[in-house]
Amino acid sequence: MPGTSAWAEIWGFMKVRKKWWLGPIIVMMVLIGTLLVFAQTSALAPFIYAIF
Q1: pLDDT digits (tens, 9 = 90+) for 3-34
Q2: Predicted confidence band at 2 (pLDDT cuts at 50, 70, 90)?
Q3: 24 vs 4, 19, 28, CA distance in Å?
Q4: Coil, helix or strand for 44?
Q5: Residue 45 backbone zone (phi > 0: left; psi -120 to 50: alpha; other: beta)
Q6: Spatial CA neighbour of 35 closest among 8, 10, 27
Q7: Residue 35: which of 24, 47, 23, 25 has the closest Cα?
Q8: Residue 42: pLDDT over 60
């Protein structure tokens, strides 16, 4: 499938193979990655790093 995005590939894999447990893992990885990127570029970095 040329032109298919990575998200569509992941969704198709989860739908066909019934791997629904991957959904929460992917969501948490995206959220933590977003938090880390935000923490590097803000004044809140010391407070966010204290959580971990």
Answers
A1: 778 888 888 888 888 888 888 988 999 998 88
A2: low
A3: 22, 11, 6
A4: coil
A5: alpha
A6: 27
A7: 47
A8: yes
